[in-house]
From TrEMBL:
Xref: PROSITE patterns: FN3, IG_LIKE
Residue span, Fibronectin type-III domain: 1-47, 137-230, 234-328
Protein's UniProt name: Down syndrome cell adhesion molecule
Domain (Ig-like): residue spans on this chain: 47-135
Superkingdom of this protein's organism: Eukaryota
SMART domains hit by this protein: FN3 (SM00060), IG (SM00409), IGc2 (SM00408)
Length: 328
């Protein structure tokens, strides 16, 4: 009998005689000891029995599994499966095969547990219980934020409490509000991790997955947070503007950056009586120098519009001023 065969049917026996049976196992070294000898005689009335033993089965996530239940007996026994003490409810994934085995399609974590096969005929009954273990990717890890700066976010990472197998590492997924997703992989030994070089004063979405030898597990909830910092703060006119006869000087250092470095300014002006704005520059650099708007008419009312940009957003300031007369 080959080693993968766990049952054997002796046929052509004399119904009037009693037979003895025993089993030995052989390896390359030799034949082992005999099993206990049992005796039996052919009979037309055979109590229901299961020709297999309680066993433990280990399956990999998403593979198909067949749990055996080879029933013997005359008359043929009725086979009933119980899943965690509840009678089997057949479905597309879970069904009893014609020979009595239980078929599970693409096992999931929830399929792990005890499966009992019960057989019965008019002369007896028998039962066998199998334990199914499912090796699966990790559950979603636990993620909590601990601190935030203008360009970093620090989080604590913990495996899910139901993960029995060790994880191999984590993958952090993050994106700014108006950007693309990026990822970074970190070791399974890391319990606290800091995402650095982030945009100041910006909203971020973050989630984390864990992975093991089977694959990548479920993602954590998507967390929404933002780095510290705000859009630029508009200064008072007296600190920002210096008016002359034909020009106005803008003291750019009067702007507060809100904690996020300034990127650039857009400067526009128009005569108060006009409708259209004149753009002087759309890319004034915040290098600490003043910016001068030239070629203005003396003794004339103007409106000035300055838009300051940083990574947290932008702020628009509008001012009214009158240039000096020729005599000052």
């Amino acid at each position: 009998v080959p080693p993968h065969q766990f049952t054997y049917e002796a046929t052509g026996l004399d119904k009037q005689r009693r037979y003895e049976f025993w089993v030995t196992a052989s390896t390359n070294i030799g034949e082992g000891e005999t099993s206990k000898i049992i005796s039996s005689a052919p009979n037309t009335r055979v109590p229901a029995k299961i020709a297999s033993f309680d066993d433990k089965f280990t399956a990999t996530y998403k593979e198909d599994v067949k749990l055996p239940c080879l029933a013997v007996g005359i008359p043929a026994p009725e086979v009933t499966w119980k899943v965690r003490d509840a009678k089997l409810q057949p479905s597309d994934r879970l069904r009893q095969l014609p020979e009595g085995s239980l078929f599970i399609k693409e096992v999931d974590r929830a399929d792990a547990g005890e499966y009992s096969c019960y057989v019965e005929n008019s002369f007896g009954h028998d039962t066998v219980t199998h334990q199914l273990i499912v090796q699966a990717p990790p559950h979603s890890p636990q993620v909590t934020f601990t601190s935030t700066t203008t360009n970093s976010l620090t989080m604590k990472l913990r495996p899910h409490q139901n993960d029995k197998s060790p994880i191999h590492g984590y993958t952090v997924h993050y994106k700014p509000e108006f950007g693309e997703w990026a990822t970074v992989q970190i070791s399974n030994s890391v319990q606290k991790y800091t995402l650095e070089n982030l945009l100041c004063g910006s909203r971020y979405q973050i989630y984390v997955t864990a992975y093991n030898g089977i694959g990548t597990g479920d993602r954590s909830d998507i967390l929404n947070t933002r780095t510290k910092g705000s859009k630029p703060i508009i200064p008072e006119a007296a600190k920002f503007l210096e008016v002359a006869t034909n020009s106005i000087t803008l003291h750019l250092s009067a702007w507060s950056d809100g904690g996020c470095p300034m990127l650039y300014f857009v400067v526009e002006y128009k005569k108060k009586s006009h409708a259209d704005w004149v753009q002087v520059s759309n890319n004034v650099k915040p290098d600490g120098a003043n910016f001068v708007v030239l070629d203005l008419d003396p003794a004339t009312w103007y409106q000035l519009r300055v838009t300051a940009h940083n990574n947290a957003g932008f702020a628009v300031a509008e001012y009214e001023f009158a240039t000096l007369t020729v005599t000052g």
